[in-house]
Design a protein that fits this description.
EC 3.2.1.-; Immunoglobulin-like; hydrolase; mainly beta; three-stranded antiparallel β-sheet; Glycosidase; glycosidase; eight-stranded antiparallel β-sheet; globular
């Protein structure tokens, strides 16, 4: 997550915290979603205002279309081609006192030299909801979103 903070709001349970920033080292934005509820998984839909989407197809070059609301962008059938990267952090066995953290369900372990492993995201369809498990933290990178504040 970069230094440029974006305005966010969340409507629903009071157990979700959400933050948005311009991405630090790549295009797009990064969301941080924290579920403080220890029992319920929350599915979150993302709506973004004042953006430009950049959709890359294997058959065509990148195209840009200006939209004012994310919900309008969903009507564009090409939006389904866009992907987002998700990084889900949870405690092992749901135990918040555990010293083992899981990234997308896999233990994060350094090797004998202390090298951190490659952090592999889960790729999801751009328009599908973000599923946030109980007591978890999710980072979502959406490279196809261009926000004026991030340029």
């Amino acid at each position: 997550m970069g230094r440029q903070v974006l305005s966010t709001s969340f409507v629903g349970t009071n157990k979700i915290r959400s933050y948005a920033h311009c991405s630090k080292t790549s295009a797009g934005i990064t969301l941080l979603v924290i579920n403080l509820d220890g029992f319920k998984t929350t599915n979150i839909g993302v709506f973004i205002e004042n953006t430009t989407t950049v959709i890359t197809s294997t058959q065509q070059n990148a195209t840009q279309k200006q939209r004012t609301k994310f919900s309008k962008m969903l009507r564009n059938p090409r939006i389904d081609e866009a992907q987002r990267d998700e990084y889900h952090l949870t405690a092992k066995d749901g135990d918040l006192h555990s010293q083992i953290v899981l990234l997308n369900g896999v233990e994060l372990l350094v090797n004998s030299s202390g090298v951190i492993p490659s952090l592999e995201p889960i790729q999801k369809n751009f328009s599908s909801p973000i599923s946030v498990a109980p007591f978890s933290i999710v980072f979502v990178h959406i490279p196809t979103i261009r926000v004026p504040a991030c340029t």
